[in-house]
Each structure stands twice: as structure tokens, then as C-alpha cells.
Amino acid sequence: MKNNITDGAKFPVHGLDREGPRIPYTDNPLDRTNRNREDIEWLDSHWHHPNTRYLPFYELRVGMSRYPKPELYWCTSRDLIDHQSAYDQSVFLGLNKAGTACFATVINEKTQHELEEQNVGFVDARSAAVQLEDGRAAIVAQARSLLNWHSQNLFCTRCGSSSRPMMAGLQRECTNSNCETVIFPRIDPVVIMLVVSSDGKQCLLGRNPGYPGRLVSALAGYMEPGESIEEAVRRELLEEVGVSIAEVRYFTSQPWPFPSTLMIGCFAVAENLKLDVNLQELESAQWFNKKDVQQLFAEQNQEFSAPRPIAIAHHLIRHWLDNS
């Protein structure tokens, strides 16, 4: 049995500077330029600079212009001049290609109404990802995850005192001078794997009780402390469907901002086809051949449906389907 994860040429990554479909929430076009986050003078010069842009969020929904086509709506400091709270709840995202500083900010209901009068709508991150192009959904993922993290970490995790933003929103610090614990954004790693038969002719798809409609998908699970990617893949598959794995192959990853998950996509080659489905974890699981999967993508299957392109599972399954 092989124990090492591989990223061999059999499964090329569909990521930055590679051919293939773009996976939503990846390919962020902003330069995060973290070197400037501790430069107070640099930050002060950009907070109210007329060229600086602010991406507004209201209740974790992002502002988007409606016409002539859906696009991220960037406010200027002039738009926020009467809304000091928007500055107080801003996080630095990075610089765009023109060198303009870009922030994400939380706005109040009054500002939301004012922007909606200017043809701005507020949509959830899933809807934004479906409508946006060229990596712009990755900006939404970055911003939403950070803003949500700040809202959930107003107090020190060590002593319970209040905390404050640092590093232009990339960290928080306890305000208690006897503590001063620095808090970092939490990221939850999840392995998501498409199990394939040893001859490559079948893949294993499962249905979680919480899935909408008729959806079936690749299996997934959170990684545990002290666990490697390949160990997590093997453990999850043994626990959920009783399948032993001969080999794990890395495919690609996807930030999933609900609230801040990193989906680690892999292929797993099964040693055999026998299933022992854990009904406490899954509603069902079964093997599908390529004709079955083609019908799923063509929406010709009356019993099941395939994951949408917003999900990394869609790209795992599609890649297997399109490659021998």
C-alpha cells in the first residue's frame, strides 16, 4: 500500500496559469501585499485616499451593481464620508493591478438603502460566485471569511477580554495588557475525494442527509489534528463507506467561505468495490460508471443530480469523466 500523496501528471491541477475550467473562489487577482499591513503611515495614507476602493458587505452579503451586468460594486471614501463605522469595520484586501488599495467593509442599514438607490444589490457569496468572472469571486471569499471571523472573535479566546483588529484586519489582539494574546483567522481544512475503481471505470458518489434535492457528490470530511491529507482521506473513506484505499492523488484546492473552509480535492484509488455504508454519516453511496455520470451532468437521471460548477466536487467528477 502506498502511503505518500502524489500530484502526478495524470491529474493536472486546474488552477492559476493552467488550462481547464476555473474553480470558483480561486485565482484572486489582488496582491495581498502583507508587507504593508504593519506600516501605519502607509495605511493612514490609504484609508481616505480618493482612489481607494471599499467593497461593501451588509449581513455578509456583498454589494454588486445590477446593470449593465452583475459586477462587484466598489465604494470610494466619498461614499462613506458620513459613515465612520464603515472605516472602523474595514479590512485590507490588497492592491489591484493598477496599484489601488482595496478594502472590504461592513455597512449599516442606512448605507445599504443609500447604495440600493444607486442600483446596487446585495447578494450572498454563492450567488456572487455564479455571476462573477476572472477570479473576482475569490475577492468575495477572502472578504466574507475575514469579516465573519472578526464578528465571531470580539473577545479574547484566552482571558475573555475584548479584542481589537490588527494588521489591517488580518489579526486581532487582546486589549488586556496582562494578556495581549494575538488571534489569527481560523481555517478549517476538509478533504474531499472522488474514489475511483482500480480500472478507472467507476467512481463512488454519496448522498448526505442534508443535501438538497437529488444531489450526490464526492465524499468529504474534516481533517483531524496531527493528520496528513492522505491519512484523512483513508480514514474518512474507511469510516463512511468501508473502502480501503491503494493510492491518494492530489487534484486541487478551493477556499469555501462558509464560513472559512479549505477544500482539499483528491482522487483516491479503491482496493476493491465492496461497500459498507455508515448510515449515521451518509444516506446512501454507490458506484457510478461513466455513462451514469454523463447522464447526471446532462440532467437525464431521474433519481440523482450532479454537483453544480460552484463546487470543487463538480470539477473532480468532470475531470474523471473527461479523462481515461
Brief overview:
24% of the residues lie in helices and 27% in strands.
Features:
324 residues; alpha+beta; Nucleoside Triphosphate Pyrophosphohydrolase; 6-stranded mixed sheet; 24% helix
Describe the structure.
The protein is of the alpha+beta class. It folds into three domains: 34-152, Nucleoside Triphosphate Pyrophosphohydrolase (Alpha-Beta Complex), CATH 3.90.79; 153-185; 188-322, Nucleoside Triphosphate Pyrophosphohydrolase. It is 24% helix and 27% strand. It has helices at 40-47, 84-88, 109-116, 125-131, 136-152, 229-241, 290-297, 312-322, and strands at 53-58, 61-65, 71-72, 90-95, 101-106, 120-123, 163-166, 171-174, 182-183, 188-196, 202-207, 219-222, 245-256, 261-270, 284-289. The strands form three sheets. Strands 1, 2, 3, 4, 5 and 6 form a six-stranded mixed β-sheet that branches. Strands 10, 11, 12, 13, 14 and 15 form a six-stranded mixed β-sheet that branches. Helix 4 (125-131) runs antiparallel to helix 5. The longest helix has 17 residues, at 136-152. The chain is globular, with a radius of gyration of 22 Å. The two termini are 23 Å apart.
